[in-house]
Amino acid sequence: MQVYSIFESIDGEISQHTQGAITTFVRLSGCNLRCLYCDTKYAIDIMAGEDLDVSVIADQIRTTNVTITGGEPLLQYKELRNFINVLRHRGIASICIETNGTMIKHRELFGDTKWIVDYKLPNAGHSHEYMNLKSFEDLLDGDIVKFVVRDALDLQLACRAKVHLQKNNLNHLTFAISIEEVRLGNITFPSIPVFVRRLIEHGHNDFILNYQHHK
To answer: How many domains are there within the chain?
Structure first.
């Protein structure tokens, strides 16, 4: 499996581990997107890092929480499934996969792993049509759909996607909003409470705000 890095840190993102949990991150190489706000451009190339056997990677896990991220982990689909099987065999049950939302398939084959799935909005720099809401309906209870919101259009599309998924009986998904700078109209809001009020005013009080504690 092509791996860029393996490291231990706190899990600053929204996940089943809870924000702030000590976690081992396995960052896989290669991504099929080029998001404008990507903070791991060094891992985009599929040939970045080194090719490691899944058992060698598992030998470096020293925590009970594991987050597999990228890049885009699902580009290495078969190797990823093998790696997860090795982790389970070694007694590690708290496993998260962070994916960009373009490659959701055979979700049920990954069992009780939890997925944190980005729903890309216009601020990512891609056509919004990249996101196929139908494929998101394959997610399971406990999975997380994450939106990176920067302006009013992003917020509108995020809320629309959330309502669509809830209408398709995915009421047990967690919907997270991650913000760095919030612009609604021509106003940049200086504080998170103002943004939260805007969500509540529009009837969306079941989002979880993703603070990205590690930053």
So the answer is: 1
